[in-house]
Amino acid sequence: MRGEIIKEIEQILPAGQILRREPMSRHTTFRVGGPAELFLEIRTASEIQKLLTFFQESGTKYFIVGNGSNLLVSDGGYDGAILHIGEGFDKIGVVGEKVRAQAGALLGRAALTAQQNSLTGLEFAFGIPGSVGGAAVMNAGAYGGEMSQVVSMVTGFTSDGDEVKLFNKELDFGYRKSILKQEKIVVAEVEFCLSDGSPEEISMKMNDLTGRRRAKQPLEYPSAGSTFKRPEGHFAGKLIMDAGLKGLCVGGAQVSEKHCGFIINKGGATAADVRQLMKKVQDRVKEQSGVELEPEIICLE
To answer: Can you list the alpha helix ranges (DSSP code H) found in the chain?
Structure first.
């Protein structure tokens, strides 16, 4: 990256928030991925806005990363700037029945905050490993709940650095998508509208869902969650199992024996291993059932 670009970034961020050649394996739940040319830790909304404005003007390549729970970065890394919106930009506040969380807050922590304030509606999100911002962009969901049901407003920035506020109906939520993803809006804060509830009953539901996840999902291994989107009228995991792919390995990557919808890092996997295994799964499922599996995880090169 050109020296003048780095100098401009140094005018926006303190030196301690700028990392060079940072391994992305440290910042994804898959625990694979090569180095990012620049890795920028975000602490304020103003930093997001200034960086986006500069990147737009300079034509600098960038990508937004939260908790890295839905991301596969190539072994060669990323030859641009990673904006990491995580710890340091993760405040959560409660006003009445509304929970307001900065984009870097973990979704599970937002759910726990709601429970502690006798607010129900976010129980489904307790075990989802993503950040609030990423969850809003992807309309994350589980066990019958999804972000579209509880998000009342999102504050974010366009690629030009302009601030926008979008209400639920404007977010155009769909299955693992939203207007935020389509328009590449960087989320700064999410407001959840919840309901009064019993802290004990909310806790019981959260514990029940946690137990079900532990029983059915390979949480003991690094992964990016469900590897493929749910095809209409089918379940990806069942299609993969019916194709005889349970336990199939490429290098250190494996189709989980516990839940075929997950590709896991069994140990020492590379991004190339994962990509090759994903392709094998897609080809075999297409051959066996005629269904084309679409990746749910984002592949970054």
So the answer is: 3-12, 45-58, 107-116, 132-138, 179-182, 199-216, 236-242, 271-289
| Active-site residue identified among 176, 189, 191, 223 | 176
Cβ burial of 30 (10 Å; 0-12, 13-18, 19+) is buried
| CB count in 10 Å sphere of residue 190 | 29
Listed in sequence order, the DSSP H helices in 243-270 are none
pLDDT digits (tens, 9 = 90+) for 206-242: 999 999 999 999 999 999 999 999 999 999 999 999 9
Owner of token pair 């189709």: 255
> And the tokens for 17?
């928030």
Q: Whole-angstrom Cα distance, residue 292 to residue 183?
A: 26
**Candidates 25, 178, 226, 256; catalytic one:** 226
- Contact, 140 vs 146, CB < 8 A? yes
31 carries an active-site annotation: no
pLDDT of residue 2: 75
Catalytic annotation on 296?
yes
Task: Judge whether 37 counts as a catalytic residue.
Answer: no
Vertex 38: Cα angle to 32 and 40 (nearest 5): 95
